[in-house]
Amino acid sequence: MALSNMQVYNEEIRLRTIELLGQKLTAFNAGSGGAIQLIPGRWMGNFDKASFFASVAGAQRRVVRTGANATQAATPLAESELVGVKVAGGFGPIIFEPSQITYLNDDPQNAINSIAEGFADALLADQLNTVVASGVAAVENVPALVNDVSALTSGAGALTQTAINGAHAKFGDMSGMLVADVMSGAAYHKLLQKGLENGERLFQSSNVTIQSILGKVFVVSDIPALTDTSGTPDLYKVLSLVSGGLIVDGSSDIITNIDTTNGNERIDTTFQADYTFGSKVKGYAWNTAIASPTDAQLATGANWVNAMSSTKHTAGVLTIADQAQ
After folding, report:
1. Rg, the chain, Cα only
2. How far apart are CA 223 and CA 36, in angstroms?
3. Are 43 and 248 within 8 A, CB to CB?
4. CA dist., res. 31 & res. 37, Å (int)
5. Which has fewest Cβ within 10 Å: 27, 103, 202, 322?
6. Listed residue (287, 227, 285) closest to 50, CA to CA
7. Which burial class, exposed, middle or buried, applies to 64 when counting CB atoms under 10 A from its CB (0-12, 13-18, 19+)?
8. What's the CA gap between 191 and 283, in Å, rounded?
9. Euclidean distance between CA atoms 317 and 158, whole angstroms
10. Are 188 and 223 in contact (CB under 8 A)?
């Protein structure tokens, strides 16, 4: 493997990563029922904004046909805005020695595939962890969308289908729009333990599993935002989403570089990548005073503002339960 070929291999790793990621996104989007959508397209700047006319349903009123014809205040037609935020990340550097490959008479493509596969898995995990953390924070910041049973005792505070159904009820007559429940592996097995049968496996990649149970898709992944051990008791969090409730886009914005270094006993080569993607929560607007946010900022509910007049038109609902029950 000639050192002059390293930049060629760099481009192959980048393209192979995008190819692998695209395959994973297609499978994931189909398996999750579209509740979490991972989209490769790009967008410019720190924020992605979409304006819409706010509801004028409040202009409906009762009319009294008798008596004086009183003056009626007008309802202004106003616009609201949904805002997604761009998140920046990196991968590597990954260090290896070119002579390791040539010494073993190995195919350089194997190294390319190994790095690309690892990068694609890491990027997919980062996207899911980030957008779910954003969704949990946004929804939990709206009390009307949260069914928190964790303070109840004698088993009433446990994670059950009843507790999740109580969260779904927060959407009232539009609860049928909730297509997927996102939970940790421990939470999922807690439900199985309480009598649910294992359903059809729809998708699996690394540390993400999607199941269909009782007609509802369960997205199972040990995403940090789905458990809370910061207080007492430890909590499970289950995020129930509508189609398109969470969106990751701009995931094809990937810059990679391979650098060969002299000066050591043997030649070293490092691979490194920078990437960005957008995190969007349906019905919410990100605080545009914060660009290139940290994980802590993304997981702060106050940074996601409900932009809809009706909570039924937002991303979904949240169940919070006691892990110990």
Report:
1. 24
2. 14
3. no
4. 10
5. 103
6. 285
7. exposed
8. 29
9. 17
10. no
| Strand locations in the chain (E) | 36-38, 47-53, 79-96, 146-148, 178-183, 200-205, 208-213, 216-221, 227-228, 235-242, 246-249, 254-261, 268-281, 284-286, 304-306, 316-322
Length of the chain equals 325
Q: How far apart are CA 158 and CA 234, in angstroms?
A: 11
Beta strands, E only, 184-313: 200-205, 208-213, 216-221, 227-228, 235-242, 246-249, 254-261, 268-281, 284-286, 304-306
How many beta carbons lie within 10 A of that of residue 295, not counting itself?
A: 15
Angle at 317 between CA 312 and CA 321, to 5 degrees: 155
Record the pTM: 0.78
User: Cα 8 from chain centroid?
Assistant: 33
1 — pLDDT class (breaks 50, 70, 90): very low
Which of 138-152, 171-185, 207-221 comes out lowest in average pLDDT? 207-221
Distance CA 53, CA 291 (A): 26
Q: Is the pLDDT of residue 198 over 50?
A: no
Are 322 and 158 spatial neighbours (Cβ–Cβ below 8 Å)? yes
- Distance between CA 58 and CA 126 in Å, rounded? 41
pLDDT for 208: 61
CA 32 – CA 20 distance, rounded (Å): 18
Residue that is written with structure tokens 């946010």 in the block: 293
Q: What is the pLDDT of residues 72-94, one digit of tens each?
A: 676 554 445 567 888 989 987 88
**Largest Cα–Cα separation, the chain:** 99
Pairing of strands 227-228, 235-242: antiparallel
Among 72, 50, 36, 69, CA closest to 221:
36
Lowest-confidence region among 43-52, 226-235, 247-256? 43-52
